Amino acid sequence: xxxxxxxxxxxxxxxxxxxxxxxxxxxxxxxxxxxxxxxxxxxxxxxxxxxxxxxxxxxxxxxxxxxxxxxxxxxxxxxxxxxxxxxxxxxxxxxxxxxxxxxxxxxxxxxxxxxxxxxxxxxxxxxxxxxxxxxxxxxxxxx
Length: 143
Prior knowledge:
globular; 6 strands; alpha/beta
């Protein structure tokens, strides 16, 4: 069975191949941590929630809280995951530790300009803190 870290690695490679930069365990203003938040060259955000098993998906209902924080949302799952159990309006990425592929594109939900600006600033600050050797969390960032 693949671990979430293995799936994340494959998804990060897919996103990078499409010109996106990503941060794992991204702290959101709502207090949650997103498995992966990616930013494209146009300033649009893609949120990715990793699910390793069907039980993992069924027991975790917090993914809906991530929707207001990205332009697109997708689940990343391993090969063999029963994808018909995932919400049809959300994207699906099939991944292993080496690569990933879009099975279903995520639908577009454009962020409001003020939220996009706040999220862009948070993304930059988290990335900078991680470069400095910190974990990326700062309670002073209010989103």
